[in-house]
Every structure is written in C-alpha cells, then in structure tokens.
Amino acid sequence: MRRKPSRGSYDRELAHSILDEALSCHLGFAVDGQPFVIPTIHARVGEVLYLHGSRASRALLTLEGGARCCVTVTLVDGLVLARSALHHSLNYRSVVVLGTAREVTDAAEKRSALEAVVEHIVPGRTTEARGPSEADVRSTFVLAVAMDEVSAKVREGPPVDNREDHELHVWAGELPLASGTAAPIPDPELRPGIEVPAYLSGWRR
Amino acid sequence: MRRKPSRGSYDRELAHSILDEALSCHLGFAVDGQPFVIPTIHARVGEVLYLHGSRASRALLTLEGGARCCVTVTLVDGLVLARSALHHSLNYRSVVVLGTAREVTDAAEKRSALEAVVEHIVPGRTTEARGPSEADVRSTFVLAVAMDEVSAKVREGPPVDNREDHELHVWAGELPLASGTAAPIPDPELRPGIEVPAYLSGWRR
Prior knowledge:
The structure is a homodimer. By secondary structure, chain A is α+β, with helices and mostly antiparallel strands.
C-alpha cells in the first residue's frame, strides 16, 4: 500500500491489524551496502512505529543518520500442502514498512513510546508495572520509524495445484497453526501472595 | 558466531537448530541504500541456506548481482514481564546470517533445493508429493546464500529487575508461548478416500 488515494482505508486497516498482532518485527538497515536484519519489539502509534533498539542498531544507525530502513512483520497462519512439491507454501500475513528511522530523544516521547511497546506486548500491563524513571528513559534507545510506504500481503486458503495434478492420490490441504500459551511461570524471586493478573491469564494473540 | 576457531561447534549447532526449527525467514538486501526485508521460506543444507525467492527479490537481487544479504530467523518463546516497564522483554531465539546470495541455475541443485524446502516445512512430504517437473524447475527462482557469518542470540528465563524493584507488589515472570496446530483442512477438491498422512497428523515444531 503506497499512500495513494487509490488505495483505501481497508488496506491500511489490514496493515495496522497485522502490525498490532505481531509480537516482534524485523528491522532492516544497510551500512556500506551490507544489509542487517535485526529482530526487535515494536509498537505502532498512528503512522509511526516505535522500536526498542539494540546497541547494535544504535551504533549502525547513528553512523548513517536518518537512515532509510525497512520494518517487516510476518504472522505464519498455516502450512499449505499441495499435491506437487512446487506449490507448497505457507499461509501468512505480512507487512513491509519502508521509512526513515530517527532516534527518539525527547523524554516525553520516549516515555510514551516505551509504554506503547509494553502495552503492545501485554495490554493492561502499564497500569501495574513501575513506569520508567528518568534514568530508565535516559538509558534506553528508542527508534521512531515514519511509515512512508506500507504494503500488506496475505496468503490464505487451500493450495493451488495444476489441474492435472488433482488426479493424484496425494492428500492436499492446510494445517492451521495456532499460537497458544502455557501456564505463567512466576519469577523465582516473586514476593509471596501476588496472583497472576487477569490481563495475563486472559492474554491472547 | 563468526567462523573463528575460538567459537566451537556448540554455537554452530545452536544456530543450525534455530534455522531448522523456524518455518520462515526474513531476507534483507539493499538497493541504492534502501533496505528491503522480505519474508520467505528456507531450508538449510550444511552451511548454505536455500530460499524460495519472490519475483520482487529476483528483480532486486538481479540488479545487484551477487548481492550481500542478511537472513534472519526469530522464534518467540515467551513474554517476559518485569516489575518495571523498562525491563519487559521477550524470550526468543534468533539467528542472523550474513552472506552473499546467488541465483541457483543448475537444474539438479535447484531440484534438490526445492525438495529441501518442502522437507523443511513438512518432513516426509517429498516421499508423496509430485516432485518438480522440468517446467517447475525452470519456472522457480531459488536463491542460495552462503552462510559467511552466523550469530545466534538467545534470551531465556525470568525477568531481570533492579534489586529495589523486587519490593514492589507487582507480578513478574514469564508467559511461555507454545505453537500448536488445529485440525488439518482438506482441499475442497481433494479426491475422496485420501486420508490425512501420518507425517502431517504428527507434525510438531
């Protein structure tokens, strides 16, 4: 979805829903022609992606200054088994964002970005967790990526085989993948008497 | 893991196990300083990654010719809830591969790469699915990435909070994520009398 009038809000909403569902993203940037792709955590606020940057990405992006980057998220929804090897695939939803990264230096923006990232992972959590102190804010590296171009791609449904392959005695179809959770594991040093919060026991993606 | 004698086989085995478990990967490359990160399917054969290339990646990589690229896979294993917002994280295993991509043109190599990709997704499947015809092989774009530098990164275990935050009355710990499957969905045009194969009903990741 380039930002053209011909593409409607539907595509944008689709892209937003995929970005919001994904727990992690892949940040791509290039230094002297060498691309790097680093996984990190993100949150979308309007048309801006906030990323929790690593030391590596900081060092490299600082070199470049206002570097072009690409942020991609992918949700794998299932295996697609065709009758022919060639047409095997995955069902998935992905979004590719092209944009420019800048380091967030304003303390208030950084603070709200950090909260957005936590809320993105576990909605409701910031009502309870200790918010970032001034030292926390200073010590953290946050990137803001302006979503200049956004394209969503979705593959769903059954395999697509050549007509003549339909005669083969080979099972074909989809194996849906579902992400689930196991029981929460309390921190070994958790103080006694603190129950698992409802926003976590009801957590779903 | 740069390929140094000081790094042992353990790291390499770890990286291999993560690459082999991941269903999809993210291929990063740059054109005129603009990075692109595209999700695709892969298979590892020794120290080579074979990727099922898209038309987009073909066009872009062809422009570059023997382009430097980065292939990253990430497995998200759980949510990490710290007492402080700042220390929230994910438990994950990731591998970053830096290498050079070449188009696979040899028919025999392409054929075995396609089979490796199918076996990577569903072990056992190539015993049953129709193998690639000569036309299939010609019509497919396969990339081979020599794994020149490989680094694996793993975060596991409980959150790491500042000592003074341990006094807070806030639940802290991990929420393990487990990938599961739903019942296989037969292709609507599946011929009657073809049962779900054992390699699929027993599929796990």
